[in-house]
Write a structure and sequence with these properties.
about 0% strand, mainly alpha
């Protein structure tokens, strides 16, 4: 417990930092954060389509979406948007 208190004290202790961060540094930090967020949601979106199409194979609506997996694979190969093969109901 004592180590945690000492660590917290030194973590939040105010000290003077003789440094200068110009506006370019701030914009790079913002770009990095936004890039990480976009990459995360893009990855989730790509895998969500694959998981959703896997479970659609077992559903009763399988007749309409029989070739969904093949369509998504073709779209991946042709670099078209992934969501263009899905029907919005």
């Amino acid at each position: 417990m004592k180590k945690i208190l000492i660590f917290t004290y030194f973590l939040f202790m105010n000290s003077e930092a003789h440094a200068y961060l110009d506006p370019g540094t701030g914009s790079i930090i913002i770009q990095a954060i936004l890039g990480a967020v976009v990459a995360f949601f893009t990855t989730i979106g790509i895998y969500w389509v694959k998981v959703k199409s896997f479970f659609k194979r077992f559903s009763k609506k399988n007749k309409d979406n029989k070739n969904l997996w093949k369509k998504s694979q073709v779209l991946l190969e042709t670099h078209q948007p992934l969501f263009s093969c899905l029907k919005i109901e």
